[in-house]
Amino acid sequence: MNRIKEVLEEKGIKQVWLADKLGKSFNTVNGYVQNRNQPSLEVLYEVAHILNVDAKELLVSNKEE
After folding, report:
1. Residue 18's closest CA among 42, 64, 54, 9?
2. Range of 14's domain?
3. Which residues contact 24 (CB under 8 A, 6 or more apart)?
4. Residue 65 — pLDDT band, cuts 50, 70, 90?
5. 17 in helix, strand or coil?
6. CB count in 10 Å sphere of residue 20
7. Is residue 25 part of a domain?
8. Going by C-beta distance under 8 Å and a sequence separation of 6 or more, which residues neighbour residue 11?
């Protein structure tokens, strides 16, 4: 699971813009945002760089408290 959707909303950035910056289709990015598909680690780091956040901020921990 990822937090790309939340980070985009926090920053006021549209999926279309992110898709353009990544050089990927809107449908691909929408799949990441809706957690239907997960980006590769390389793409996740690229998303983090584009959004100017730490890659860890894009991940949801599966560790139980």
Report:
1. 9
2. 4-54
3. 43
4. low
5. helix
6. 12
7. yes
8. 51
